[in-house]
Design a protein that fits this description.
globular
Length: 174
């Protein structure tokens, strides 16, 4: 865990060994958990830092995350964001293919911290919008024409959740 934290801190400054450690964690799906408020596998926690490092050598590993049928919702969104930060336009076909998957994890279980709710079933949100809008935003930043991105975003302009509609509108106004 200390190795991960040191690598995450140093990768943003271009320290090669730190980048390699983060990349290894993602490629090997290191399952050891991070310590902190939210326990997450080190390989998933490494994804955003690969984006921050901005090194194109991480692209193949991040694209593999998009293809991974066992990747969590947060890992997939993190990989999209990391690819956006790296800015390699060659991933556009991979993101478009990713959006065609019919097996994406689209349920987000919302955490309840109230002791009164401990015996109730947790609330579940349909999070497909998160995947689709993160993909749209990434594609737009990689130079995909707005008319093409609009096809992904428009269904979310009519979502019954105001925060989804606002996010969709924001993307189209970029």
């Amino acid at each position: 865990n200390m190795r991960f934290r040191a690598s995450a801190a140093l990768a943003r400054y271009g320290v090669e060994e730190a980048f390699q450690e983060l990349l290894r964690s993602v490629k090997n799906r290191v399952s050891e958990k991070t310590k902190g408020a939210k326990l997450v596998a080190i390989w998933e926690a490494s994804i955003p830092f690969l984006g921050i490092a901005g090194d194109k050598r991480a692209v193949p590993a991040l694209v593999e995350v998009l293809k991974d049928k066992n990747a969590t919702l947060d890992a997939l969104i993190g990989a999209l964001r990391a690819l956006e930060r790296i800015g390699d336009k060659s991933v556009v076909p991979d993101i478009k293919e990713f959006l065609k998957r019919d097996d994406l994890p689209t349920k987000r279980v919302l955490q309840s911290s109230s002791a009164l709710l401990k015996d109730m079933s947790p609330a579940v949100d349909d999070a497909k919008w998160q995947i689709e809008l993160a993909s749209a935003e990434t594609l737009l930043s990689l130079g995909v024409p707005i008319d093409e991105v609009r096809q992904i975003v428009e269904p979310h302009l009519k979502d019954n959740r105001a925060y989804v509609r606002r996010y969709a509108s924001k993307i189209l106004s970029m």
